[in-house]
Amino acid sequence: MSAANMNPAYYVSSGAIKLAVYTWGVAESNKPTIVLVHGYPDSAHIWQNVAQALAKDNFVVAYDVRGAGLSSKPIKVKDYDLSLLSADLVAVLDSLPNTPKVHLVGHDWGAIQSWESVTEPKLQARLLSFTAISGPCLDHMGFWMQQRLGVKAQSMKQVLRQLAHSWYIVFFQIPVLAPAIWRNFGNKMWPWLLKNQENIHGVQANPTQAQDGEYGVNLYKANMLPRVMYPRERHSTVPTQIMVVTDDHFMIPDIWQGVERWLADVSFVEMTGGHWLILNKSTEFAAYVQQFVAKIEKKQSNAIN
After folding, report:
1. Confidence at 1, pLDDT banded by 50, 70, 90
2. What are the structural domains, with CATH classification, of the chain?
C-alpha cells in the first residue's frame, strides 16, 4: 500500500487556518454526500481506498485536519481545541455544492472531533448520519470512567484496562519529546508500527507523516485531560453507527457501554481487526458505511413521500 500523492480539489478557510479538501465522484442532487475525517497521526491519505469504494454511489469528501497533511499547522496548543476542530468541519460543509446535509464518518481522532459536532444542537440538522470507529466522545468517556471508579471491581478493571491501552497519552504530554521523536524518526517508525503492531504490511509513510505526528500531538494536549476530567453532558439525535473493533490496541470495546444514554438513535457493528483496519479492511468497512448510508437515505425518502 503506497501513500500515493493526492492533490487537493481545493482549499477552504476556517478563520486563519487553510484546510486542504479532497473529493471523489461527482456532486449530484440525487447522490448522498459523505464526509470522511481522519485521525492521528494520519492525513486524508488514509481514506483513499475507502473513498474510492464509496465514490461509486456517493460524492465523497475528505480533508486534512488542522495540523496534518497540506492544511495549516498552528503551533499553539490552544489552536487544537475541539471547538475549533468543529468549526473546521463547518467550513468544509459550507464549501460543498448546495451545502447539502451529509453523512459523517470519523476514525480515531477524526471520530473524537466529529463527536463535538454530532453532539452540538446547532449542527445536528446538517448531519444525516454519523459512523464512528475507534474514537469515542471524550465527554462520554469522562462520564464512563467516573461511573466506574470506586465501584465494583469489574468496573474498575475496565477503567484500568483502558488506561493501560492509553499509555501513549501520558507520553504525549511530555514537552518536546514526542514532537522530536516524530521529526527524527517518524517516516521510518510509522510503517514499522503498522507492520509489527497491526500486522499491516507494505504501508509507506505519507509525504507529511513526520509533521502529522509532530503537530497532531497538540490534539491530546488541548483536549484529553479537560474533557475527561470535566465532562459535559452531550446528547445527539443524529442516527449513529458505532463500529466496535475487536482487537484495537488503543481502545477497549467496553468504552461503548452505556453510550445509549447520550444517543437517541444508535446501532453497533462489530468488526474483527485492529485500530487501523480502515487500511487493510477498507472494502469491508466501506460496505458497512454504504449500508448505513443507504438505510438512512431510504428513511429520508420515505419521510418526504
Report:
1. very low
2. 10-304 (3.40.50.1820)
Q: How confident is the model over 185-229, as pLDDT tens digits?
A: 567 788 888 898 889 998 888 889 989 988 999 999 999 889 988
CA pair distance 107, 49, nearest whole angstrom: 14
Q: How far apart are CA 38 and CA 65, in angstroms?
A: 7
Peptide linkage before 191 cis (omega within 30 of 0): no
252: how many CB neighbours lie within 10 A of its CB?
Answer: 18
Q: Round to the nearest angstrom and report the end-to-end CA distance of the chain.
A: 44
Q: What is the pTM of this model?
A: 0.90
